[in-house]
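# nightly structure sweep
# worker-07 picked up a monomer target from the shared queue
# config: single-sequence mode, recycle default, output format = C-alpha cells
# input follows
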Amino acid sequence: MEPSPVVRHPKHLVHPRVWIFAALFVIAGTAIAQQSRITKPIDNAQRVTLTGHIHPKATPANDRGRVAPSLKLPYVTLTLTQSDAQKADLKSLLADQQNPSSPNYRRWLTPGQYADRFGVSAEDISKITQWLQGQGLAVVNVAQGRNWIAVSGSAAQVEAAFATEIHQYVVDGETHFANATNPSVPAAIGGMVLSIRGLNDFRLKPRIQKAKYTTGSGNHYLGPNDLATIYDIAPAYAAGYNGTGQKIVVAGQSDVPVSDIQQFQSFFNLTPNLPQMVLVGTDPGISSGDREESDLDLEWSGAVAPGATIIFVYSQNVLDAVNSAIDQNLAPVISVSYGSCELENQPSDAQTFQSLATRANSQGITWFNASGDNGAADCYTGDNTVPQQEQESAAVDFPASVPEVTGVGGTQFVDSSGTYWSATNTNGASALSYIPETSWNTSVADGSPSASGGGLSIYFPKPSWQIGPGVPGNNWRNVPDVALNADPDNDGYIVFTDGSTKPQVYGGTSCPTPVMAGIAALLNQYLGKTGLGNINPQLYALAQSNPAVFHPLITAGNNTVTVSLTATATGCGRHQTCTSSSAVVPGYTANAGGGYNDVTGLGSVDAWKLLTCWSGTCSAGTTPPPPVTTPATASLSLVSNLTNIGQQDVAFMTATATANDGVTTPEGVVKFSAGTISLGALTLVGSAGISTATLIVSGAELPLGSATITASYDGSSTSAAVTSSVTLNVRTAGSTLGIPVISGLTDGASFLQKYSPGMIMSVFGATLSPSTESASSVPLPVTMAGVAASVNGVEAPFYYVSPTQLNIQVPYQTPANSDVTLTINNNGQITSQKFQTALASPGIFTDQTSTIVPNGSATPGQITTLYMAGVGAVTPAVATGSAPASSTPIALLPAPQNTTVKVGGVTASTTFIGVPSWAVGVTQINFQVPSGVLAGRQPVVVSVNGVASTAAYVNVTN
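# output follows
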C-alpha cells in the first residue's frame, strides 16, 4: 500500500514518544485537502448492502454451487464516490475546461490534483485500507487519485469481507465465478463505496467481426494508405503531422506477441514502432479473440498515427486496464474496443463508468469506445445466456453510451459503381479518393446481426451539448457520436494476428475506434496540445458551424436486425444458419444527406478538415498554421517551513508552479517580496508538469510583527501573473536566560541511547530554546526561535524546539561507527556534547505500553503497518530534512537495505519498506502477521543490516 498519514494525537494527552510520532505528520498536513468522511469506527456488525451487484448471467439456472474457499479473486476494486460538494465542483470544472472564456479552459488536472480536489481524504484511504487488510485481503493497488482501492484474496476472505457468497456458474459452456448475493460493507464506509468490481469474472466482449469470404463480397481490403486517402489523413502527413510527441493507450485483456505488430508494420513498409507493454494485475496469458482484438487495435492506431507512442495496457479484465491507464495518466487518448449491452448492467455500473470517464476528462483524456456490432439488438447472443425478451429488445452498447466517452459507430462503403480503386496497389494501397458511405448493416447477408450499434441510453440523460440537425428530440443520450467504415465483408481492414504471416481481414466497430484514436493524436499534435478531454461538445458544435467536417451518407440505411433464438445453449453464431424462431428488433434509420442519426452519429470525418476547422474557423490554404506553443496555464502555491520566525532564524519559502495540463513543465522566474521589500527572484526547476523554487529568508530581512511573503510567477498564459502568499509572525531575538544545558540524548522512536545517521534525536535539558515551536512543512527548518544545531559542523534541522526538549534529524552525512559532536546554539549561547554513532539504530514507534502505533492489533495473516526511525543510510539517498518527492513511484521510494521483520520469533513477509512521501526520517513497513503466530501479546523485532530493534508489541487476535 502507498504510505499515508495517520490520525494525529493532542500532545498533552499522550506519551512523549507517541507525540513525537504524531507530530511528524503535522509537517505533511497541508497536503490533505479533504476532511475525513468516516466519522465512526468501521464496525463489521453494522453493514449496508450495495444493490445492483449481481451479474445478469449469474442466474439460479446456471448456478453450480459455491466455489472452493481457496479460489483466488485476483483484482477486486472498491470504487469510492465523491461527496455531493465534490460532485458539484467536478461538474462545474468539466464545463469550464471546455469553455474558452473560462480561466480553467483546458487546464487539465494531474492525478495528484484530482486526488486533492475530488478524491477521498488520505486519512479515509488509510482507514479503509486498514479495514480491508483486517479482513485478510491483500491491498494490490491504491489509486493515485484516491478514488479506488484494489485488493486480492481467497473466495473465503472475500465472502467474509463483503458478506456474500461466491458461486460457480456455467454459461454457454464456459465456467465462471460470481457473487450470488449483493455484497455489503460496514455502514461507516457505506456512503463512500460506489461499487465493488471483480466479484465475478464475466468480462466485456471485443467488438470485432471476421470477414466472410464468399462470392459477391468486396475484393478490396484496407491498408493504412487506403485509409489515409479515403478519410483525408494524407494532407496531415504531408504537413508533418504524424503523431510525433503524442501518446495513445490501447486497452486489452490478453498478452500480445509483438511479432504480430512487426509483421503488420513490415507488410505495409511502416517505420518500426512497437508498443510499450503495461501489465495490470495478474497476467491474462494469450486469450483467443482478445488477442485478435488487441492486434487490430495496436496495428491500426499506430498505422494512423505512426509517430505516436502506443501504450498497450492489459489485464485479465479490460476495465482494470482502463482504470489503471487513467489513474497513471499514461496518455491523452484511450482506445477501447470492448463493450456490453446496457441492459446487462446495473445503475451502479453506469455510475462507476461515468465516474471513471469524468476523471479521465478532467485530466484531458479523450476516450473512444466501439458502439457495438449487433445493430439495435445489442443484447443479442443467439443462445440462452441472456433472456429471450432482452435479446429482442433495442439496446445500446456500454460504455460507448457514457456521455463523457466518444462512441464510434460503423459505416460501409458504396463502391459498386464509380471508380474508387486502382487496378494495382502502391505500397499496399489502391484507394483513389473518398468513397461514399451508408450505414453499416450486412445482417441479412451474414445470417445474424452485423450492424452499427446505436440508439438511446436507458441510464444517461441527454447532455446539453448533444444538439443540432437530426439529433432526436428526446431526453436521453444518443449513441454513437461518429462513425467510420466497419464492414468486414466489403473492404475490411487487413490485420496480422495469431502469429500468422498471412493477412486476415476484420471489421466491426472495433476497427474505426483505434482509427479515431489515431486521428485524435494527430489533432493533439496539430493544436500543440497534450489533451482535449471530452471532445463531444466540440464535435457537435462543428457539425453546425462547419458541417463539411463530416461526410453525409448518400443513402439512409438502418440498424434494424432480425435475431434468431435457439432453445438450447448450443448457440446460433455469426454466418451460421439458424432454424429456430426469429424476431425483428426495430432499430433506427439513418439520415441521407447529413445530420445526426442513431446509426452513424454525426457521420464519418474528413480528418484534414477536422484538424484545420477544430477551432471553429477553418484555416485557409493547404498548410496549417504552426502548432500552438503557448505555455500551459499554471497555478502557484507558496509554503513556509516556519509560521513564527525570530530575527536570527531562517525560513525556507517554497513556491510550486503546477501546469494545469499535467505535462508541460513550468519555466521562468518566481519573484518573492514582503510588501514593498524585494526578497529576490529564483528560476523554477522541475519536470513532469511541476516546478519549484525555494528561497531562504532571514528573519532580519522582514519587518517585525505580521509579515506577508508573496511569490509571483508570470510564466502563465493567463493575462496576469499568478501569485500566492503566506504570513509569518516575526519576533525580536529570543532571550536565552543562560547557557543551554544538555542532560541527555535519546532515539526519538525507542527513547534508547542509540544513534545513527538520519535518525530522529531527542535532546533533553534546560535553556535549550526561548519558546516552544514546531515545524510546519518540509524542508525542516535549520533554525527555530533563534536556535541552531549541528553535528560535526553540519546543520541538523528541527522538528520541534522547547526550553527542555529539541527534536532534530541527525544529518545523513554523519559518519557511522564514530564519535561525533552535537552543538546547540541558543541565540548566541553555545554548548556541545559527544555521542557514538552506529550503522543503524532501528527503533519502532510505540505507545507507553510498548505497543506499536497506530495499529496495535492484528490477526494472523493480516497485513499491518509499523513506523520506525534510525534505519541509517537509505537508497536512493534523500536530503537531510526533506521528504521524498510526492511524484516518486512506490518502487523508487528510499529504503534501508537488508531489513527483516519477526513477529513472535517467526519471520514475517513484507509488502512495502520505505520512506513514505509525506515523512522525514521515518520508514514505513507493511508486514503480514505469520499465520502460525499464537494469539496474545507478541513481540515484533525489526533488523536493519544486522542491527536489531528493541521489541515492540502487537496484540494478535483470532
